[in-house]
From TrEMBL:
SUPFAM superfamilies: GroES-like, NAD(P)-binding Rossmann-fold domains. InterPro entries: ADH-like_C, ADH-like_N, ER, GroES-like_sf, NAD(P)-bd_dom_sf, YIM1/Zinc_Alcohol_DH_Fams. SMART domains: PKS_ER (SM00829). Residues 12-301 form the Enoyl reductase (ER) domain. It comes from the Bacteria. CDD domains: MDR_like_2. PANTHER family: ALCOHOL DEHYDROGENASE RELATED, RETICULON-4-INTERACTING PROTEIN 1, MITOCHONDRIAL. GO terms for molecular function: oxidoreductase activity. This is NADPH:quinone reductase.
């Protein structure tokens, strides 16, 4: 099968290569999926799990990519809940990756059924950002109707999902980003926008929740705009900043079939729109992940026509 592999951590996305690899086999509780569309997060190439296994042994050449949508072609021993021929979407384990390929073996519990009226590119594009937004808002942030939330990177793949889900839950949403991101953030539902290049973040006033995808100085400054007892949720790693009398939570998403089902239902009924910036073929994937200009939205690889 054709697959993208990486062998050189220092090279980043420039070290990606399209090669022939053996097709994967289904282990216990696995399914093999014929990949129709897949996604990739550039941060994957900085994760130890891309380069070593859980015992810290080198596992290169490794196939990156965690997000996928496709069709089940084989079941491993003991696998239940899915069937051969079923359309599915979801995430692979970060220590396995492998979705930038024509086939991938994935734990069945990491996948959810993909309805026939949802395109594979859409399924692949909502799995990672959708779960990140859902868990950040409702599991860790415990967002309630009537609360206010500051969403960093509101025009990005994750931020746009956060904005839409928060609005749908009855929250007041303030988005942030670069000057050029203002209209896109508003289009996705932000009721106010803070231009981080020109506006003072500290002028926002008090919000109940901040969902941060940036980290560093922005995360630290964000704690100051949270009401006493509020919450700072970040996916950018631990932060020293903490809201007065409140919580600072950094988390790593976990695959969840029920949450994926909630997300795809919102896509079907029009409450959730994808944020796809570019669709490329597997043959053109290396170039797509090394763009000559800044891309807005998520890059999806359409593995099969």
């Amino acid at each position: 099968m054709k697959a993208i592999v990486v062998t050189d951590q220092a090279a980043g996305t420039a070290g990606m290569r399209l090669v022939e690899r053996p097709e994967p086999q289904a282990a216990i509780n696995d399914v093999v999926v014929q990949v129709h569309a897949s996604g990739f997060t550039s941060g994957e190439l900085t994760w130890p799990s891309t380069w070593t296994d859980r015992l810290d042994r080198d596992r290169t050449p490794s196939i990156p990519g965690q997000e996928l949508a496709g069709v089940v072609t084989a079941l491993g021993y003991g696998t239940t809940g899915l069937s051969v021929g079923q359309r599915v979407f979801g995430l692979s384990d970060s220590y396995r990756g492998g979705t930038l390929a024509e086939y991938v073996a994935v734990e069945a519990r990491n996948l959810a059924p993909l309805p026939g009226d949802v395109d594979f590119t859409v399924g692949a594009s909502v799995a990672m950002p959708g779960l990140t937004a859902w868990q950040g808002l409702f599991v860790h942030g415990r967002l309630q109707a009537g609360q206010s939330i500051l969403v960093h990177g509101a025009a990005g793949a994750v931020g746009s999902m956060v904005t839409q889900l928060a609005r749908g839950a009855g929250a007041y949403v303030i988005g942030t980003g670069r000057t050029a991101d203002r209209q896109k953030a508003v289009d996705f539902g932000a009721q106010e926008f803070v231009d981080l290049e020109n506006d003072a973040l500290e002028d926002v006033g008090g919000v109940d929740l901040v969902l941060d995808v940036i980290g560093g100085d922005i995360a630290k400054r964000s704690a100051a705009v949270i009401r006493p007892g509020g919450t700072l949720v970040t996916i950018a790693g631990p932060t020293e900043a903490r809201p007065a009398g409140g919580l600072a939570i950094d988390f790593v998403l976990v695959p969840d079939r029920a949450q994926l089902g909630e997300i795809v239902q919102r896509v079907r009924d029009g409450r959730l729109r994808t944020n796809i910036g570019n669709i490329a073929t597997l043959d053109d994937a290396v170039a797509a992940f090394n763009p000559t200009k800044r891309m807005s939205g998520k890059t999806i690889i359409r593995v099969r026509p």
